[in-house]
Amino acid sequence: MIILNDEQGSPEWLASRLGRPSASMFGKLITGSGKPSSSAESYINELIAERLTGRSKPFYTNEHMERGNALEPEAREAYEFITDYEVQETGFILDDSEEFGCSPDGLVVDHSLGLEIKCPSDSVHVSYLRAGKVPAKYYQQVQGCMWITGRECWDFMSYHPEMPHLLVRARRNEKFIKAMAEQVLAAVETITTETERLV
Question: What is the secondary structure of 143-192 as a DSSP string?
Answer without folding.
Answer: HHHHHHH--SEEEEEE--TTS--EEEEEE--HHHHHHHHHHHHHHHHHHH
